[in-house]
Amino acid sequence: QVRLVESGGGSVQAGGSLRLSCVVSGAGFTINRMEWYRQAPEKQRELVAAIASGGITNIADSVKGRFTISRDNAKNTGYLQMNSLEPEDTAVYYCAADIRTALSSAYACPAKWCWGQGTQVTVSS
Prior knowledge:
Blueprint: E1 3-7, E2 10-13, E3 18-25, E4 29-39, E5 46-51, E6 57-59, E7 67-72, E8 77-82, E9 91-101, E10 114-115, E11 119-124
Parallel strand pairs: 2-11
Antiparallel strand pairs: 1-3, 3-8, 4-5, 4-9, 5-6, 7-8, 9-10, 9-11
């Protein structure tokens, strides 16, 4: 069974940095695209950053220049480096990934994409 576990969230002051990690556990799978989303209270979920299996990245305009997405395929781990944090970045951050079984290339999770449980990021002014 594939699981995604995020970590690295916390409380920081404006201007600070955090590095989120998303570890994919399980066996017999291939991780394709990985994405980071965030959802603030009473706001819609927002795609923050994405990275393809080959390393091509996309960053939302709202965080461009401050956030960087990366991955370590050998460790089945994705990262979101967040610098120059602002109070507006306060949200629950979720990792999502397109993960397929190595045997049949079927989606490894019932909801197609696999999701983590989220990690809270709070930025104070």
